[in-house]
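Hey, resending since the last one bounced:
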Amino acid sequence: MNRNAMNIFFIVILLLFLSTGCTTTKESHFRQQSKEGLAKSLPGADIAYIDAHNHISGGQGFRPDFSGAVYSALATMKELGIGKIIIMPPPFSPAHRGIFDSDALLPFAAEHPDRIAVLGGGGTLNVMIHGEGKSNSVSPEMKAVFEKKAAEIISKGAVGLGEFAVEHFSFTHDHPYESVSADHPLFLLLADIAAKHDVPVDIHMEAIPKDMPLPYRPLLKRSGNNPKMLRENMSGFERLLSHNPKAKIIWAHAGWCNTGFRTPELCRDLFNKYPNLYMSFKFSPDSVPETRPVSEDNNSIKPEWLKLIKDFPDRFIIGTDQFYVPPGSRSIGPQKTEGSKRFISLLPPDLARRIGVENPKRIFNLKD
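The structure tokens again:
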């Protein structure tokens, strides 16, 4: 090939590359405009909502990269228009590895006070509860240690206490099963502490209204750590709710139920009985269809759930339960943030603002 032919060849290749790049850029811009246009056409899409239940994972290795996980969280918040997130340690049990608590998270709330708030106790108080879980009698010394630790967590800047496990199924072989009665003496003490300091308690609990076999769900069967029989837990939960009416109890993960019993009817009954009960919505691809509040096509909220929300508009918040990890790290669980955003967009504007902004501000005493 002579020099002129080579020059022509490279010019053609360059033009093709630039054309492809421009087309890709234009298509990307068009897709983004379409996405924004769709969002703006939905009633609650312009709400910079507060996502009140999330986790930060430092990824694999000996030195957890919480900073990288926070970077990922802030990027997602910017993309989806999330105004603020509340992060918390998972409900660690004594068998967990890599336990941490709010001390590892509070520096990020100090660095981004308008974007991040923190709950604490999942890596300390929850471990104490499950360490004492088989005993209905707790020594005065243990209660004193528990109360001192809870007060310390709050004094350092946590806006609430969580996440705690009453009934937490295992989803992988290295993920422990956790179960303790909600009216355990340390849970009752926790309610008193929360009421005293006017902070909420965030609780993870599968709804088990009667003794029953473990439901057949692929998500549960793959672990091997869950018991074959489950013990009823709603009566203990009601005793916790009635123990101190001034304690704000958030029952996390409405809409994500692995037993199929957390129905709008069950929630309505509890709301009618206990004014101190709140719930956070979680939307995940692995939710049980029959208790998912959004239709299968994700275009509407099911009538029975919408009526419940309208009847109790001050009791609900968003709690995505997203695990944010550092860039390049293996994800933990499915992506759930888009589901929360979609749910907010489907709500009437007044309910979207109440659930997305006003309720979490009031419940957590957020000032911004």
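Confidence is low (pLDDT under 50) at residues 5-42.

Sorry for the duplicate.
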